[in-house]
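General statements about sequence and structure are easier to judge against a single worked case. For one protein, we set the task of working out the structure tokens from the amino acid sequence alone. The sequence in question and its structure tokens are set out directly beneath this paragraph.
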Amino acid sequence: MKRFFISIAFIFAGLAMMNAQSFAFEGKEDLKLNIGANFQSKGGGIISSLDYGLGESFSVGVQAGYLLSVSEIAGITGAGFTDKLDMKVRASAHLGQVLNLLDNLDIYPGLNLGLRNFGLHLGARYFFDGGFGVFSEIQFPIARYKTDAVNYDKLNNQFSFSIGASFDLNM
């Protein structure tokens, strides 16, 4: 797993050295869509998020995810629809311009408020020419609504890693 994260870091570093025309975050009224794969302990699935720019370096958005494969947990099989579904509202601070990164690269930390927890996310977005890019994001809970979460309550309520495609809907 460590090699995987190091490989992703090198890919983003290599992409950052390339020149592109699309902006990773344009500020007020910017609209970005992420669609990708989500990986977490005992499950994997799809995730999507939509971010809307409220200011020069701030956005709000929504996120939805669904686990397509879930491992058996503690001898219990058959996670239900609500065990696999996750929805959140989110706020992000876009640091690409603050850190003087390339216009097509953005790093964004933020807060999530979801169905199962209150948490943090940290992501990076790189855009190629033409409104298409890639993203990677990690998320983890700060406070769980069920402090004694067991079995399937831990799904979508733990550290997760996402990677996928990003689309500039302003184009």
